[in-house]
What does this fold into?
Amino acid sequence: MPLLDMRDRLIVGLDLPTVEAAEAMVATLGDTVSFYKVGLQLSFAGGIDFARRLADSGKKVFLDVKLLDIDNTVEHAVENIARLGVTFCTIHAYPKAMRAAVAGKGMRDLRLLAVTVLTSMDEADLKAAGYAGTVAEIVAARAADARLAGMDGIVCSPEEARAMRSIVGAGMAIVTPGIRPGGSPAGDQKRVATPTAAIRAGADHLVVGRPILEAADPRAAAAAIQAEIALALSV
Ligand code: C5P
It folds into this structure.
C-alpha cells in the first residue's frame, strides 16, 4: 500500500440530508480534513455529482455505496464509478460481486473495499439474518475472499482489525467505522472502539460520522481525532 499521509487516516462520513449541508460541513472542517465519505443518504440527494466535485477540488473521496448485484451490473457500475475520480468504493464481500467489481475497475486508480460485516451488527443480528458462525469467523472468511478476489481493502470493525492484518497482508487497506472517541454515544453501532484503539489494532483509515457531525464544534472534534491518531501512531 502507498505510504499514507497522516491526515488521510481520518475519513469523515458526510451522512447529511443535502448537498448544501455537506458543502457547509466541508467548509467548516477546512484543512483539518482531507478525506470524506459520501454514503447512501447523500448519494440519493445529488451526492454522486457532489462526490465528483469534491474529488475535483482536491479532497479524497470514499463513495460508500455498498454494491451487491449480478456480476454484469456490478462490473458496469464500477466502470462508471471509476470515472468519478473517487479514491475508495465499497462492495459487499460476496466473491462473485467482488470479482465483477475488480473486472470493472480495470487499470483505473479506484481502490475497492469489501464490506465484511456491518459494524451495526452483532452475533444476534447475524443469526436473525440466517448466518451461522460468529462475527469474527464471518469477517475473517470474507476478508480472505476479498484478498482472493483482488480487492484493495476491507471494511471491518476495530475489534477485528488486528486479526485481519494477517489475512489481508500489508498491501490491503483496513478501514474501520464504529469509531467513538471517549464519551461519545454509540448510537446504532454495536462494535465500537476509540481512535487510539483502532489505530493500535492496525487500522489504516478511521471512518467517523456523528461524533464530528453532531459536535458543537465539528472542526475542533475532527482536530482532536487527528491529534489522537497522530499520538497513537507515534507510540
Ligand atoms: O456516525 P458514524 O460514525 O456511526 O458513521 C459511520 C459511517 O460508516 C456510516 O456512514 C456508515 O454507513 C458507515 N459504515 C459502517 N459500517 C460498515 C460500513 C460503513 O458504519 N461496515
Observations:
- Residues 6-234 form a domain with the TIM Barrel fold (CATH 3.20.20.70).
- Residues 13, 15, 39, 64, 115, 118-119, 155, 177-178, 187, 189, 207-210 surround cytidine-5'-monophosphate (CB under 6 Å).
- The two ends are 22 Å apart (CA to CA).
- The longest strand covers residues 60-67.
